Amino acid sequence: MRKAALVVVAVVVLFSSVSLFAADPEYVLLPGSAVNVLVDETINLGIITIDANGNWHDIDITQGVQWSMNGKIGGDDPSEGKLTAQLGLLRATYKAPHTVPKVNPVAIAVTILPQGPIKSKLTLICNVTVIDKDNMFNVTGPGQAPGMYQLDDRYSNPQMQAMLARAYMAGPELAINVSAMQPRGAGGGEMYHSNGTMSLFVNSTSLGEHEWTLPGASATTVQLTIAGKSMEMYSTGDCLPHGDSNCKPVSTKGATRIIAFDQKTGEVSGSFQGQVVKLDNGKPSTYVVAIGSFKTKLQSLVPAMK
To answer: Percent of the chain beyond pLDDT 90?
Structure first.
């Protein structure tokens, strides 16, 4: 169990700004049909449409929007979490409870009456699984089940932990690297013996939220790599428009939060959440949502292993 509750990370998910619908839009509830979230953390939910090319679009005003949590309209149960609809009702936030709820996952649903060709009510559901783990990450998106990677409990030896989860200073930046695996696999993931690595850079060791930025003299970035049947890489480095040789480098929307930093022991912990982009042959392609947590020690402050 985690010794200290995580501080809420409130990250605005990036939505493309397009107000006109396609002839037959596909309505989707972000971050997807299923997602993992850490105890005490907040995730953002939003209704978008996806066109035939896989691009995300904001939706315009809709009617009959109603949010529910585990079948109950609204939602503010300390044992299940707190669901709060935002202004306009097209977005909401869910704050996970302090402990894993008895009913897990928590079903967050929204019912809408869309404008345009679709005239009947739609109900979109996101099943939120609340977890209590350090050194983990997952990515999820529309039509994509969350794949969780964590530093497996089997590696309990302190020296092994220090090798698989470590932090160091890279100039003004705090660098964190964690090697993780999908649980229950014989040496990795259940199907493909897959493993994952998260490489984080934070622009300082200051407590609080650090918004993601483009690499530079000092930056906050996230890079996630999953190696299984194939290699997948996700990054906060985006490029608009995608595929254009003269595209503009931008950062996706998200933040890394440093929750605690012990100056004596060098132990640092925190979390991250936001939108990342999948890289295909080095070029940004598909958007997904990523969350994760870390807890490790600065190498310079860790006694030499014998």
So the answer is: 26
